[in-house]
Amino acid sequence: MAAMAALERWVSGQLQELLGLSGRHVPAFLVALARRSRSLEELLERLRETETLRVEEPRVREFARQLWDKVPREAPREPPGRAAERAALELQRHNRGYRLVESDEEEGPGPAPAGHAQEE
User: Fold this and answer.
1) Pairwise CA distance, residues 115 & 87, whole Å
2) pTM of the model
3) CA neighbor of 46 nearest in space, from 58, 63, 66, 64
4) N or C: where does the chain have the smaller number of CB atoms within 10 Å of the terminal CB?
5) Which parts of the sequence are annotated with region: Disordered (predicted)?
6) What sign for the dihedral angle of Cα 74, 79, 85, 87?
7) Are 63 and 34 in contact (CB under 8 A)?
8) How far apart are CA 119 and CA 58, in angstroms?
9) What domain range includes position 19?
């Protein structure tokens, strides 16, 4: 959580430079906005929708890029059903590599394979 507090302080400082002010909850809001965004472009669009920053300005775009880079993201999690499906498909692929092995006992009557003597 210390990292998030440091990130919010950084955002607050950047807002001071960009806008000349920073509200108490605005940095946390912007960090959350960046975390929910799947790409820098999506973050810029969300910022545009808030109508608080002019994303056309190069300084604002640079701020958004830096924020995007700084926000920690979790690795995408695979849903449990998807993991089970993937494991089943892998097992199925693995099993296709096996072939039935015929033993001498299953061959039944007929000529014995070369090198084997028939018992009488």
Assistant:
1) 44
2) 0.58
3) 64
4) C
5) 96-120
6) positive
7) no
8) 93
9) 1-70
Distance CA 74, CA 36 (A): 11
Q: Do residues 47 and 33 make contact, with C-beta atoms less than 8 angstroms apart?
A: yes
Q: Is residue 110 part of a domain?
A: no
Which residue stretches of the chain are H helix? 2-19, 26-36, 40-50, 58-70, 80-96
**15 assigned to some structural domain:** yes
pLDDT 10s digits, 100-111 = 777 666 555 555
Number of domain units in the chain: 1
Q: Is residue 76 part of a domain?
A: no
Whole-angstrom distance, CA of residue 88 vs CA of residue 67: 40
Terminal Cα distance for the chain, rounded: 84
Residue 112 lies in a domain: no
The residue type of 4 is M
Distances (CA, A) of 34 to 21, 87, 100, 117: 20, 33, 56, 79
How much is the CA Rg of the chain, to the nearest whole Å?
A: 32
